[in-house]
Amino acid sequence: MAVRRRAFDRIGGFDVSLEHGGDEQEWQERLLGGAPPHNAAGGVLYVAAAGLEHRRSGADARLRSLARTAHERGRAARRLDARAQRAPRLSSELMTLARCAGHVIRRRCPAGLTLVAHSIGRVRQCLAEARAGSPAGASRRVPAPPAPAPPPAPAAPPAARAAASTGSPPGAPEPGDFLSGASGTVGGLDSVRRLLGDAAIDAWDVLGAGRLRLRRAARVAPPRRRVLAIGVFRPEHRALTERLSAELASSRHDVALYTCEPAGRGKFENLNRLLAAHPPDARDWLLVLDDDVRLPRGFLDSFVFLCERFGLQLAQPAHRLRSHAAWPQTRRRPRSVAHEVSFVEIGPVTAFSSQTFPTLLPFPELRMGWGLDSHWAALAREHGWRCGVIDAVAIAHRAAPAGAAYSREAAVEEARAFLTGRTFLNAHEARKTLATHRRW
After folding, report:
1. What is the pLDDT of residue 401?
2. What number of other Cβ atoms are within 10 A of residue 284's Cβ?
3. Sign, Cα dihedral of 391, 395, 396, 402
4. Are 433 and 341 in contact (CB under 8 A)?
5. Which pTM was predicted?
6. Which site among 111, 272, 325, 377 is 20 to 30 Å from 5 CA-CA?
7. Cα(290)–Cα(281) distance, rounded to whole angstroms?
8. CA angle 136, 422, 409 (to 5 degrees)
């Protein structure tokens, strides 16, 4: 779809509260605004001569994937109809569902299952609206641009600069805007189930020789890189930090590890002091590590290999299923080497390519750093950086739940103050997976 700039100037941008279909339809309805379709000021044209191919392949072409997509589109279509006050009653939606199911049975039509899924999505959304007592959700339409403003003030430092037209608008955010909504703590019977899941994934990697092939490939590619690793290490985690240091030292890359104790300062305050003493200017990668993680054997070689294989600028190793991890998209996935996301956490292990140094370093002077990763995600969109989670080298974060060493309330308030006036990626967008890579 191609849009003239003056159209955006006249009616504003897309409604970001709509997803899975309907956002472009709502925008075009505003654009037309009753004008005849042939009117150049508000026309929408379909150019049949400009052909292209849009193909589905692999898992994306299977019935389960198609049905899941149809279900989400059904819910979105119902939301759009409800907001425009043209949604049919529940009885009508149920009748449509019955007819779709009847078509599948009568015609023995597997493809009709996608229509059933679409109709189920509409029914579910209708029931959700009835429970909420409102036929349509609140709109977050992007307003039309205001009149030209005076020349802007000098740009803020890179780490504090807001990313234009991405993420959430500047303002004082609520915790639900930038937090996952879950503690991520794993325990009890759930811990046993996840332990078995990790064992199954590990067994599959060993039996399929995927781990062995990856290690062999990482021995020769990419060329030897210069890696700066920094972290705040506490005396009570001495055993873990010694194992972590030994694992990094076994890498074929040129690794320099510098650490310090908290000494009453916050994590990112200490990281900035380490960066000031050991500038990363001549380094290819910066690795920020917490002191309470276990790294798998051959971690760094495989991690750097896959980061560069998929062209990532911000990356983190996946959490094992049994790890404490608040964001679901950061956990490892079966039969996946890596998956691309829009959001990379501030810890427990985060990797930055040299391309990001001028924008992200030094870090803001924060103690806990909550919300900083949401701001990084907005900057990544602005600069076109690729972000990813590496499933093939999953880490274990089991020593303590996230945030156990400090006040959660203080961390949330620090995040709200930091994100006020800065653009950030909202939690809903942060959870999305953009692509899954099953082979390298």
Report:
1. 73
2. 19
3. negative
4. yes
5. 0.64
6. 377
7. 22
8. 80
